[in-house]
Amino acid sequence: MGMPQPLIVQGDNTILLDVHDPDADAARAAIAPFTELEKSPEHFHTYRITPLSVWNAASAGLSADEVVTALSENSRFPVPPHVRTTIEELIGRYGKLRLEPGDSDYRLRLIVPDADIRAELRSRPAIASYIRGEDGEDTFLIDLVDRGSVKLELIRIGYPVDDRAPLIDGEAVEFSMRESTASGKPFHLRDYQREAARTFWGEGRPGAGYGTVVLPCGAGKTVVGMAAMDLLKTSTLILTTNVAAVHQWIDELLDKTHLTEDDIGEYTGHRKDVKPITVATYQILVWRPDRDSPFPHFDLFRRNRWGLIIYDEVHLLPAPIFRVTAEIQAIRRLGLTATLVREDGREEDVFSLVGPKRYDVPWKELEQKGWIAEAVCYEIRLDMPHGLRTEYAVADKRAKFRIASENPAKVDAVEQIVANHREDAIIVIGQYLSQLHELAERLDAPIITGKTPNARREEIYGAFRSGELRVIVVSKVANFAIDLPDASVAIQVSGSFGSRQEEAQRLGRILRPKQGQRHNSFFYTLISNQTVEEQFAANRQKFLTEQGYAYHIEHWEDT
């Protein structure tokens, strides 16, 4: 009798992967295109089959038979019949509705072969309002500008659209990657970065050229974006989270490509340059004088003949930009992110308007290959001082969280942890400014908050990268899109109510590979005992263990 297979397919559409099975890696690769990884602790990883995950697979060309075969060949027990049926029905829905070129530059044809579905669409006001007529028995006419809005409404009722309408090429740009960086270091694309860009591009065929790439923090998502730019060689608009991230993108482009400063524009609150390659912030695009005014900077999307738009940290894409993204469906769109989880639950909007997930790699897989650092996570629990326990007991829930977060015992604990890591580059991260200023003073370290001018932020980040600074204290401004490649220790003194998104970003600050022999990184979270912080810490612990990281709980008096 042979070895049991590595997968257990369950009736609730979850799949358990036995990571100790010798065929576990092959099974993981087989199911990755049509499942979502939910958690990956030590022994069994849990994947889930969802409508979005199956439609992602269908958009990549997988058939229902291929999906069911991948499950059957790797399953320890027979695949439940209703799971097969669910997969067949979901994949059967993809491609039932197709968008194709119309009879003019301003119209598209929505092909709906099924008469019952046509009747359903006519009966739904949210969809019928976009129908501009019918062309034969099975075709609705749609205005080009409504392309994204129609796709969004259709996926909300369970009909993902196979968008085969052409994409514009945009203005041509001379673009090429360097073989060594501007500073003289060897540079080449990693295999997964090249594969991610090519999968997005899809050789230029219909139905490709839009979608999302999911890679861990530290895995080089910026390089994937540049690899896509190299394939397309077209005018590109890059949208990212803040001014520091804009400057990081510009620095990376100058360092790793043959672009010059004359080729790259910055579009922020400080500068408004539009050039063949333009990098802008989400904040400037969604700024308006008041709630009733239009967004004056939305015209950036139309001020150049863009051939590619890159949405950095696409899980943070502000809701108003979905509106304009719905209008520009003829432009190639690449989303980059470490997690498709959105705190507002609008993952379907990303699927419809930016594009389906085209490529992802698990965190632990890149760690095993040495592309990101191995992280060890510690939760340090500290008692509240006696004088604060009564104040905490009578406070409301929000006040309780702040009192627990600002437990003064944490300052001593941070000092000791910093002393224990004398050779490491350390980031101290928190939420409450009074606590952070006290920590900065005690540690004799600079502090970066939302009020820190951008020039000063970049001066501090530069000193940290160069090794001139060993410890910095940062507020939530450091969560996203900041390149701190040599950070090896993160100390979290307070979080934002256990946000999974935030935890992914904070852990990502220390995952980039380190110079030299040592490869471990350390992530410390400080928690006040017997307080609401423990409840939120449970969310963080769940996230980290689901990603496969060792998680240790220690009491401060024992350390």
Structure overview:
The chain is an alpha/beta fold and 559 residues long. The protein has four domains: 7-93, no CATH class; 97-163, no CATH class; 191-361, P-loop containing nucleotide triphosphate hydrolases (Rossmann fold), CATH 3.40.50; 370-558, P-loop containing nucleotide triphosphate hydrolases (Rossmann fold, 3-Layer(aba) Sandwich), CATH 3.40.50. The strands form four sheets. The chain has a seven-stranded parallel beta sheet, with helices on both faces. It has a seven-stranded parallel beta sheet with strand order 19-20-18-21-22-17-23, with helices on both faces. A five-stranded mixed beta sheet has the order 7-8-6-5-9, covered by helices on one side. β3 (36-39) and β4 (44-48) form a beta hairpin. The longest helix has 15 residues, at 532-546.
Strand content: 15-25%
How would the global form be characterised? globular
> Any low-confidence stretches, pLDDT <50, length ≥5?
none
Reading off the top of the CATH hierarchy, the class of the largest domain is best stated as Alpha Beta
CATH architecture classification name of the largest domain: 3-Layer(aba) Sandwich
As a whole number of angstroms, the C-alpha radius of gyration is 25 Å
Q: Major beta sheet, specifics?
A: 7 strands, parallel
CATH topology heading of the largest domain:
Rossmann fold
Average of per-residue pLDDT values:
86
Count of the separate structural domains: 4
Structural class: alpha/beta
Tally of contiguous helical segments: 21
What is the CATH superfamily classification of the largest domain? P-loop containing nucleotide triphosphate hydrolases
- Helical coverage, percent range: 25-40%
Number of strands: 23
End-to-end Cα distance, whole Å, is 50 Å
Strand order, biggest sheet?
Answer: 12-13-11-14-15-10-16
